[in-house]
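Table S2 (text version). Query chain:
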Amino acid sequence: MIIGAGHNQVAYIERAKALGLFTVALDGNPHAPGFAVAHAGEVANIRDAEAVTGAAQKFRVDAIYPSAEVGVEATAAAASRLSLPGVSLETARKVRHKGAMRQAVESAGIAANPPFKVVSDLSEALDWAVNVGFPVVVKPADGQGSRSVVRVDTKDQLRPAFTNALDASYRREVVIEQFMEGESVSVEALVFNEEVLPVAITGRIMSRLPHRFNLGIYMPANLSADESAAAARFTAQCLQAVGFTSGSTHTEVMLTKDGFKLVEMAGRLGGARIPTGLVPLAYGVDLGTESIKVCLGERPDVRHRYARGAALLWLIPPAGRLMRMPDLDEAKAIPGVEEVVWNINKGEDVPRAIDCISRDRIGYVIASGPTVIKAIAIAKVAGRMIEERLQIAIS
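Corresponding C-alpha cell output:
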C-alpha cells in the first residue's frame, strides 16, 4: 500500500506494479491522480494511524510504503501494529519532529546541531534569539515543503515569522535555530537491517533569503570524494541516533566551517523526482524500485551502473495571471532535456514562489549530460526559453 496518491507518488505506484505487486493507493483527496494508476484505492486521512491500519487490514497488504511526508508516523504505527517492515513509531516521531530529531542526535553525542530551541511562545522565542544572536532560522517543528521556513535578522521580523511557523505546525510548536552558512546537500539512502546504504548526494541551488527552499537540485553534488564520504558517514551516524533501522531516507546536511551539520531528515525518499528522475539518470539506479524492495524486507541493489550528470531546475516566472502558454515542445527538443513539466493553464494565476509547495505548482525542467555542469547548463537554457516565451499579467 502506497501512502499518498498525488503526482509525486504516481511513480512509486507504477514501480510497485512493475514489480508484480498488487498495489493499493491511499490518499485523502478523492481526485488524487494515483487512484487511476493503482490496482485499488482508498480515500482516507494518511495522518490517521487508525485509518492507515484499517486500510492495510482491509486489503491484507504485505507492506506499507510511506511516500508522503505527512504519512510517515501513521505508516510506522500501522506497520508496527501489523508486524510489517518499517521503522518504529518512536523513530518516525523523531524524524518528523525537527526538535526531537535534534535532541536525539545531541543525546547521542554527535556535534550535528546549531544552537536551537523548541518553543511555542513568542516571548520565549524572542528571549532565546536575543540571547543567541541574530540571524536565526524559524521553522514549524513538524512542517514539510519548506513552508514557513524563513531566516530572521531582527526582533521585528521574528514576530510574523513565529506566527506563520506556529500556524503551519500540526503540534503548534516552532523550532528556532542559529542560521548556518555552508554548502547545502542531501544524502539519499536506504537502510536495510540497520545498514545505511548511501545511494547519491544531491546538490542544491537555494532561493534568496529570507525564504529557504530549492530553486534547483543536481547530482553529483559539489563535494570532493573525501567530503562525499564524510557526508555519508555523518548521515549514518544521525540516522543511527534516531534509531532508523529500515526504510528510505532523505537527510539534508550542510558543510560548514565546523564540518557537517544536520539540517533535517525524512523517513521517506526525497521529493522533486530525486529518486525517480535524477538518480536513474546520474547513476542508473532505480531508487524508487529499490526502496520498495526494502519496504518488503528484501535487500536492495544500489550499485552505480555509470556516472553522469543530472539536474532539475524549477521554473520561477514572475507572479501574475498567465496570458499565454509556453511552447514546451521547443524546450523538449533541446538535446539533453529529459522532461519538461508546466502545471498552469492560460488564465490561471502563477503563484509567487516562497516555498516548495508554491514552487511545485508551476513546473520544472530535468536535463542530463556527461557532467553535472553540462546538465545544469542544458536545464538553464530550456528554462530560460520557456520563461522568455511566457506572457504574464503581473499582479
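Notes on Table S2: The chain has four domains: 2-84, 115-178, 181-295, 309-394. The mean pLDDT is 94.
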